[in-house]
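Sample 3 of the quickstart, ligand zinc ion:
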Amino acid sequence: MKTPVKHFLFSIDLEDVRLGATNGLSYEPRVIQNVEKYLKWLNHNRFTCTFFIVGETAAIYPSIISEIISEGHEIACHTMHHKLISCYTPAEFEKDLEDNLAILQDLGAKDIIGFRAPSYSLTLQTQWAYDILKRLGFLYSSSVLPTKNPLFTGWPQFGKSPKITDQGIIELPLTIRSLGLISVPFSGGIYFRLLPKKLIGYFARKQRHNEPLIGYFHPYDIDTEQEKFMQGGINNSRFYNWLMYYNRGSVFDKLDAILDYGYKVITYKEYLSIEYNGRV
Ligand SMILES: [Zn+2]
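Result:
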């Protein structure tokens, strides 16, 4: 019997890390080179994926946004300035998202229905954001880390599985797995780089067939040539800064290993059409 395909909701959070650092623009711009590497990997495997794009990053690199659109990938929002939702009033958040939508639409994106909060900052306290997403026409969000975590606030009470929120938005929370006493979002960012390939593969194999593997990656996650500087959003912690640069060279090898376990990358929009057709 043929094994059913597992869905890997691989995604790129497209942001320029320099913008969060002190004097960040004095460092070499690296977004285009790194996005090109992801596009090459996606092309090679004949996948399309979802790009959650920060508006101010799109403004700096309009050509790469056009290329992403022309290659058929899904465009979604990741706010205008990459601030935590808790930093906004509801009115400010709405204005920010309108600006984020406008700049992406000006660059040619159509039918934007997806949103991801910076640093998974959609939590018990900021769930008012769903009302605004609904009002602006979004259908889904992938913004919740459903566990406690030293790096992000998290929303443990949300539950691990995707669901339709009371406000009618489909939330696709980040995939987590237990590692001893803690749960880790192993399928993206720092944890993906930190954990050994065998453990990532083991976790990926443990996913049930009807549960998508939700992964997030940044341009910098694969950038082995970026100059060293203190990144923003980590309280000037030298340890976290070390983690930000750790094991970037391992990402594509681990991604290929996930594919070996029967996963196929699809866009979030495509996943919705398979799993929620007509339900929102
Ligand atoms: Zn981000």
